[in-house]
Amino acid sequence: MFDYKMVTALNVEILQDFQTFLGEININSEKDITKENIRDYIIARRTQAVDLDKILIVIAEYFLAVHNDYLANEAGIHTEAGWHFENIAALTKRELGEDIWCQVFGNIIMPKTGWTLDEISDFTRQMHKNLNTVAPQKQIENMLQKYAHGYEQSFDDTLSKIVETQGIDGLINHLNDNHIRELEKCQESGVLMDCAVVDDDVINFYKMNPLNYRIGNKLINKQGPNLTHKFLHETDEKMKRYYGCHCPIKKQSILQNEGGLSHSLCYCCFGHSKKQFEAAFGRAITGRVIKTRMDEGCLECVFEIDIPDEFLK
Residue 205 contacts by C-beta under 8 Å, 6 or more apart in sequence? Predict the structure, then answer.
């Protein structure tokens, strides 16, 4: 089933084992593999003395190589979630204190590779509930902004120079135009952008729906869909929201009976996004989450940023 020319000899054994498992459940074609098959494979292997991180990385890399961004993302989520929870737990201890950390994280088993997406989402739901019992919502949102996905970002002085010479509208045009240029480069070279396929439909979507625009003294920043081409061609609302969501620790909640988690948890994404604007303005800025795909019926994630007064003149 798998094209083993796409992988090294070291990883063939892992894919052969996955293929054997798929054969046992009568999946004999690569195009028929689903996210549920990956979940069931993890469950079948997690009680064995195997390196699930290694297994899932190999599976994700294979699907990336054959441009199946959906299954690559599904495999990758399982390896990312535990890392995010560990970082949020550490941030909670630092920002809210050890007493609150003990109440929220002290006596629970932290997620790790091998947990299913439903188990990860259930943990996130309980974590948020526990946080809300010991700290005000605004304090939690401020803390999550500082988490900002846990990634360090650095910016040169390009953005600040654009604001200085071209103003806010020049910055907005630069960000939108640069995004389109990056998409077009990916399409021309045949590579994925942020592990997602880029085609004409994707590029036209962003040309018609820019990620940044201005309303008065507010700068509106939208988060494009995670798997844009899957998002565009999906008709089921819940699956559309699922394909659009970037978050490995809460996107599965969209498909659960309890419904999507609170969009207050999306302040980590807001914190990540606003860093480029803080670099542009050369100072800390304020803003808020307006709506996200966690909200019932909402197909987009929208953040509002307060433009500092000195840049409105």
Answer: 228, 232
* CB atoms near residue 229 (< 10 Å): 19
Residues 56-100 pLDDT 10s: 999 999 999 889 999 999 999 888 888 899 999 999 999 999 999
* Res. 287: pLDDT tops 90: yes
- How far apart (Å, rounded) are the C-alpha atoms in residues 211 and 297? 20
pLDDT in tens, 188-220: 999 899 889 999 999 999 999 999 999 999 999
Both tokens of 145, joined, read 């902004």
Q: Which two tokens stand for residue 171?
A: 């910055």
Distance CA 184, CA 208 (A): 15
Q: For 54, list phi and psi in degrees, rounded to 5.
A: -60, -45
284, with CB counted inside 10 A (0-12, 13-18, 19+), is: exposed
The sign of the dihedral angle between the CA atoms of 179, 185, 190, 191 is negative
Query: C-alpha 229: how far from its chain's center?
Result: 16
